[in-house]
Design goal:
Two copies of one chain form a homodimer.
Chain A (H helix, E strand, L loop, with lengths): L10 H8 L3 H9 L6 H14 L5 H8 L4 E5 L5 H17 L3 E5 L5 H11 L5 E5 L16 E4 L12 E4 L1 H14 L5 E4 L6 H16 L9 E2 L5 H13 L6 E4 L2 H13 L9 E3 L16 E4 L1 H16 L8 E4 L1 E4 L2 H4 L2
Parallel strand pairs in A: 1-2, 1-3, 3-4, 4-5, 5-11, 6-7, 6-8, 8-9
Antiparallel strand pairs in A: 10-12
The first copy, chain A, binds a DNA duplex through helix 2 and helix 4.
Chain lengths: ~350, ~350
DNA sequence: CACGCAACTGTAACCGGTTACACGCGGCGC
DNA sequence: GCGCCGCGTGTAACCGGTTACAGTTGCGTG
């Protein structure tokens, strides 16, 4: 048989078997200090034979580095979550780091507990504050951290933060719709306390205002980023008189709900009502009609966050404290017909 | 100010400040052994004042428990990934565990390296073998692990495995389409080496065979689980003569691609071509027409996996070695009209 | 030939917790 | 008065690595 690896064996036993000291084993395995070729050879043989695997936890304790980072996220659904993790994981892997994720945090107190539990387990943190009320998250002093989202001041002055250009993207949609001649534009917002949702709404409102158009209160519908809420919102918007000539949903999932509702009502898109979303999820271009949206490189956001964190960990220089990931308007047939 | 927590302080310093021994601190914090109320009081005060936070890494070393589990996943996209992680995370949180994820593994050798790096960092593993060739993943002896996917024999005899009832779900779709009178049914498969994809194809083929229908080779199209491949496959299928009267895509993303292609070709769904998918992603019901699919409780899969792992970790009893998460057919207008 | 230095290796003290064992002490039964 | 017991606490040996420091060689030089 081939017991290739045997976790239950320690460095001292390997040392005994190879008739050298533990220091030598350590040095061979880490490529430090000068080692006689014969010794190295013998050690490696014994290591292979015994299937010795170093205990990372023990190593972390003495080196004071865990090679892993903690990722604290709010309750996230769908594409956004997986893309973000993908990006982070990719960045981590590239630098030999591991990722400890913890999602679904709604309560700051819960996060506080988590932070404590993470002490000694991770070298740094990527934190996404879910809601505005979470502005209160305090990172213990001396712990490198990067914040994600639209709440720059979250972690205190000294932590970098990355954000998506929600306001810019929403503004671009507004411009686009205005350029097409729309003046009454319905808006389906995201969850009340969600900062992305808020930034999108404000960006939209501001862009309208800049062109002298006001967002009428009866055209502003509450949503929760899920399909169903978009569906419901569109039904309500369609009933407003005069009916809006366009609808902008704060994310694609809700836009899809809107699309479904408009179809049910027999309203042509974009003929009678133009429609736009946000996120540009892969499916957006395959809808009927293909959905105008705002493309955000979420994986890149994750990867950048990781890069920032690592550059902080490894004593990197002083990069800008805030960084914004662009959001680009993607025009498709749901607004411009064919 | 309020330096609520201070990671840079050790238990010995706390002991000195509270004028007790380190053992006492440890006992108070862990609720072990008898402690005089006055002492406990004093210790807690000092702990609070100094903002002492125990170092989990050190604790892990001496207790030989890390309270975290490793999750090893293949390269995953979209909804499936996030739902799975959500389920796992939820199960972990409920038991005070942490989750160390690592995604995007295509190569068994890469996984091997990862396994070594995880030694001493996690108490157990949840492993999803991406492809058939990964059947070779060897878990070191003595490490509790749970496998996910359709390759029961993966980790050796002693590891439990959870699977989605891919074959059953695909069979149900086949039955459904046969019942509707379809005999020429196109199939869009997933990535070649993907075990879910394979099980779906085989389940479909088997169900057809059971009713005396053969899956014609020219109706079997290769896909990769992404929208675009579904689009391309549908175009090719539509060109086959005689044209299939129904298409079954191995996942919803590809089904959406198909839908888009059929629309481009001006083929009515389900009038001229019926369409079904697999996964029942949230969007499925909002498509035009709403998509017949197979619902899989992915989050539950993750949660069950975690539960199984933990029950193994905590010396739980002998539960069945294999468990299957059901997959239920959801019939919508893409197959039955209205 | 003594000395310095480089190459190599070993000893033991860390890292920051947990916990087996020992100890002091007051109360109890006899 | 003595022995025992249990409570509350401290001492020190772990857990499994890393690494500063201290040798021990062997070789080149003055």
């Amino acid at each position: 048989m081939d017991p290739k690896s045997n976790p239950s064996i320690s460095i001292r036993e390997v040392a005994a078997a190879a008739r050298v000291s533990v220091a030598t084993i350590s040095r061979v395995l880490n490529g430090k200090g000068p080692i006689h070729p014969d010794t190295r050879q013998r050690v490696l043989e014994v290591v292979a034979e015994l299937g010795y695997v170093p205990h990372s936890g023990a190593r972390s304790l003495s080196t004071r580095r865990t090679s892993s980072v903690g990722v604290i996220l709010p309750d996230l659904y769908g594409e956004f979550f997986s893309e973000l993790i993908r990006g982070i994981d990719q960045g981590a892997k590239a630098s030999g780091y591991h990722v400890l994720v913890s999602g679904s945090h709604s309560d700051p107190a819960e996060v506080e507990v988590l932070l404590r539990a993470l002490h000694g387990r991770v070298d740094g943190l990527i934190v996404m504050g879910p809601t505005r009320s979470t502005g209160a998250i305090r990172i213990p002093p001396g712990v490198p951290a990067v914040f994600l989202g639209d709440l720059p001041a979250q972690g205190g002055v000294d932590h970098p933060s990355l954000r998506i250009d929600n306001a810019g993207g929403a503004g671009a949609v507004a411009e686009h719709l205005l350029d097409l001649g729309h003046r009454r534009i319905g808006f389906v917002s995201g969850p009340a306390e969600n900062s992305d949702a808020e930034a999108r709404l404000e960006g939209f409102r501001a862009a309208l205002a800049a062109r002298g158009v006001e967002l009428a209160p009866e055209l502003l519908m509450a949503g929760d980023f899920r399909e169903e809420s978009g569906h419901a919102a569109a039904l309500r918007l369609a009933a407003v008189t005069p009916r809006p000539s366009a609808i902008f949903a704060a994310n694609d999932a809700m836009a899809i709900g809107c699309l479904s509702a408009l179809r049910d009502l027999g309203l042509a898109v974009p003929g009678e009502v133009a429609l736009a979303g946000f996120d540009d999820i892969p499916i957006a271009r395959y809808l009927a009609p293909p959905l105008t949206s705002v493309r955000v490189a979420i994986a890149e956001l994750g990867e950048r966050a990781m890069a920032r964190l690592l550059s902080g960990l490894e004593g990197g220089g002083a990069e800008p404290l805030e960084e914004t990931i662009p959001a680009a308007l993607v025009v498709r047939a749901s607004t411009v017909g064919l």
